[in-house]
Amino acid sequence: MLTILMEIRKSQDYGVLLLEITKMLEADLDAVVALEASVFTLPWSRPLFLKDIKENKCARFFTAKEGDKLLGYGGFWLLQDEMNIVNIAVSPDHRQKGVGKLLLKHLLSEGMKEGAKFATLDVRVNNTAARKLYESAGFIFIALRKKYYTDNQEDAIVMWLNPIKL
Ligand SMILES: CC(C)(COP(=O)(O)OP(=O)(O)OC[C@H]1O[C@@H](n2cnc3c(N)ncnc32)[C@H](O)[C@@H]1OP(=O)(O)O)[C@@H](O)C(=O)NCCC(=O)NCCS
After folding, report:
1. Is any ligand 1 atom within 6 A of the Cβ of residue 123?
2. Is position 114 within any domain?
3. Fewest C-beta in 10 Å: which of 1, 33, 36, 42?
């Protein structure tokens, strides 16, 4: 378990968060699925998460919690020397405090430990917050998938971080 005493610098409610980043368990799924559904227009279902954390040998998922409260989660698939970040989300009331960046850093560090050399991801072209998060970690644009998202035909930007650096 990674326990981080995180100083909140960017929000109005200055203070500290005792953030714990741990492997996602089945017991986390009620909260994870609720956050996923509130955040994404094409959310993953509970069975999809369950399959990934129980059966998918390539999948690595983590939660960020303060006590029992889920603040965020993220996951990746390890495909030989590539780690593909499949999702990352932070609860709306804990955004812009650095939680997303810490989660992303944790994913990259776990991927590196298992031999990943580079990281890839898809992000909606209009998702400014996520694009800023990835850019701040060093990801750069490599390709565009036209009309990739089925709900609104939005384009996806493919980004990568090669080599991975923390
Ligand atoms: C994207 C998301 C995970 C970011 O989480 P977060 O905890 O708010 O991000 P952080 O506070 O760690 O910020 C990381 C960087 O992104 C920037 N950022 C975050 N939100 C931003 C916003 N709304 N507008 C502009 N920049 C933003 C921060 O300024 C910071 O940049 P810096 O390192 O240069 O200071 C969060 O907004 C979210 O859950 N969005 C909905 C789910 C989603 O879209 N996931 C991504 C799918 S590809």
Report:
1. yes
2. yes
3. 1
